[in-house]
Amino acid sequence: MATKKSRSSKYLDRHESDIHKINKRQVRVPNGFSPTGEVREEFDNDGKKTVVIICKAKKLLVKDFIKEVEDAIDASENDLEKERICIKYSGQEDYCLLKSALLNHHMPKNKLDHSYINAMKAKARGDGKDVIDFGMGNPDLASPSHVVDKLVEASRNPKAHRYSVSRGITGLRRANAAYYARRFSVEVDAEKETIVTLGSKEGFANLAMAITSPGDVALVPNPSYPIHAYGFIIAGGTLRHLPVGPNINIIRELEQAVAHSVPKPLAVVLNFPSNPTAQVVGLDFYQEVVEFCRKHQIWILSDLAYAEIYFDDYVPPSILQVPGARDIAVEFSSVSKTYSMPGWRIGFATGNSKLIAALARIKSYLDYGAFTPVQVAATAALNGPQDVIEAARNVYRQRRDVLVESFGRAGWNIPSPSATMFAWAPIPDLFREIGSLEFSKLLLEHAEVAVSPGVGFGEYGEGYVRIALVENHQRIHQAARNIRRFLSNAEDIMGASQKKRGEL
Q: Which residue in 59, 81, 264, 451 is deepest, having the highest Cβ count within 10 Å?
């Protein structure tokens, strides 16, 4: 059945195009758009290749494009269709993929990200289904009681209710410096080399804004936590993706990316232990990266959010342990996972004094800092008893072991992660041809188990799903039983799914 062309698709069609030469390719770009220099190849399930050129729209054109999308939303009578439009519009309003299927609000189902899975979860729960949710990595453990007590105590002080300090209270910055000395044997200047942020996510986005000018190139891992890319996109930067994952030489990918980037990259993003892949690296890796980036004068933004969620014999290092790293690197951390305090929104940026100063200037315009009693309580977490960290680590380790073992018995073999609160699981062979999104949908529909499709973290995440260790042992075993039934009926489920997709 022919799909009716959306207004947004018509909008692009009615503009003439210009010829540009990018990476030795002759490409056609609509007037009003300028190519960013990024070209990639995508393959559908039938092996058909599409060349995708990333372009940036002029401001007036973007404004018109937004109006077209809003009109399409208003015109749609289907709630799910509206949601699809909103998903695309919120992430692509300034950077448009010159691929009609992605600009058309009838987006291919294999390209919808995990926001679609969230909508399915909500609907399933509304229908009374018992969804076992491994989708969102939201720590479910209680915050330490002594930290909560300190929050209550500090909040009773009327003086603590005044404007706070954007760069963080002195005691909290000193506590983070003490943590680095204790954990990594790294001396940190609490005045110049660390700053308190509203979580590591917000700190990352603000620093990207502080250092990025339109057209600057950032090297971002793929798959990756979304803010690693969108922090630079929001700031007007251009992305070049670094494939990461099993059997990928990251140093070689970095070298190739720098050699083929014009202009030279401004910064490279690192995230180890990784969300979503749970990949880990050693100090020797950081030494190579620091040496390379010092040579090429590239900033390093390292996300160390999972520094304390590790298992077995692996202990995550800090890039600041490398001599000379502070000349070019800043590291982001938080209390979210370490102390089970995700909703408190306390994080840190630590490292190069120039980058810390730039972040401080941006923050001074954007926020007054977290509520002072929250900062006081976070100080108590860093300075207080640290056995709570080991306790949380043991919980995640046990959940990991139960999940890997029980899912393996059910017929789904999952590599055991060395760190993070996630497992990066290959899609079972029978379902690989349909991709991670369709597999996640079928798993939710037929097994009532929710996971995050790998493609939602970048195209190189295809073929995998992320499983968060946020359910207790009983629920994990229940999920394993549901998955066993699901896999035992895999051929029938796949047949029905293929028939359904063929009818759409």
A: 451
